[in-house]
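check this:
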Amino acid sequence: METERERIIPYSGYRGLWFWLMLGWVASGVDRTITGPVISYMIDNRVPLFQGVENPYAVGGLVGSLLFAGYALMQFPGGYIGDRFGHRTVIVISIAWAGVATVLSGLVTALIGLVALRVLTGIGAGMFYSNDRSVITQQTPFEKRSLGMGVVIAGLSIGITLAFLTVSPLIRVGEAVFGTEGAWRMPFLALGLLTVLISLGMHAFFRSQRGEHAFRSAYGGALAELGKYSAVFFVVIVGVYFVAVRLGLPEWGVAGIITVIALALVAAVFTRLGGRIAPVLYNRDLFLIYVAFIPILWNLWFFSFWSVSIVSEAAAGSTFLQAALTAVFFGLAGIAGYPAGGWLADYSKSRGWGRKWMLVAFTFVQGVLTLLFALYVMGGGQSLVMLGGLLFAASLFFNALQPMAQALAADLTAPAYLGAMFGMMNLIGEIGAILSPAISGVLRDATGGWVAAVFVDTALIFVGFLLLLFVREARAAAAREREREPAAAPE
């Protein structure tokens, strides 16, 4: 229920929380998405960092995969430390960290430096998701939980859209400042600074919260714990890349090694913390959702990373700007799809239908629309209007299904384990994001086109659809208990 303060100052309560967390997703989306278009520009213009690279698309995809490796590995530690030191504390650290790393990415002079800074960006951004979902669950009335998740994560689509729209103009500004060879630096510098400013605004908002949600920051303790995990993951990821390059391992092999490391982390969590967080580790239905998130995040970062290149090649003769503007439709669909999916999931839940079947239906439709996109590209379709329309339609259903899945997982989880659950959910799901850019880039270099990569993406979507069919929503006793509560417990 709304408090008197919320009625007088509409953005002081959970609505204000939604707004600032949405801005956090804008920042997170921008910081990660600009990597793909910027690398496409670097490849096309043969900038010094990519001179002498034999398989540029595979290497460029690997840079993205390593970013998501850092992002994935920090999911569980970020949520677990958020449960201990406060989710909002870790949220502010996450956004500030990613912003600083993005700014520094624009200052590097060697490919290994870009790899290292993109890994650090991913590590910082990886702390956000599990804590963001937890705070929404805690501070949003139960009947608006899925809507809140949808509204907030719409910021990711805004960030993806903003990245596609601003990279080309910022590169033109960069040409005037740094010349053609250094123009790629400007998107990192400008958008990284924007992220840092958003982190400062989030801190100020959290400090303004009163009553049961009064903010007691613990930056020192949280940073100390996060630093331990971050240092280990950074050394491991960059070390694997460095050794792999020296040994001449293929890019897909490096992505595979990182995936094995992520799986080893999952196994370590089961071994060391199995007793403490058993409700989120040994729940059959939650685990099905975790694995179904692998195709979801594969699809998200396949199109977010490579869509400009896919459209550019499919529509022969189009400019970089035209391809980027067409790819924007993938991001724009989320601005409507995320909130709509959240609202539909809440409506379905309130009518007693549950969230599962809405989620299953949307996943199936998204798979069909992605298949149509693949068939159109395979058939030689070149219309920017058709490519943009198919991207928009598939992305609309894709973005809508994500808050449905997140709210369903939250329904199956006790409040004390939300951070750990969302962390495990994204740790496993991000295996798709780790593999997607690199393997898709390898397929592009091997086949000379994007058709095979799009068909792989389509097949994985249908695998996720099959997994979700076996989730048993009706048996979630914890969800039935919390459904009787007017709102979740405070942080």
Summary: The chain has a mean pLDDT of 81. Residues 116 and 263 are 22 Å apart (CA to CA).
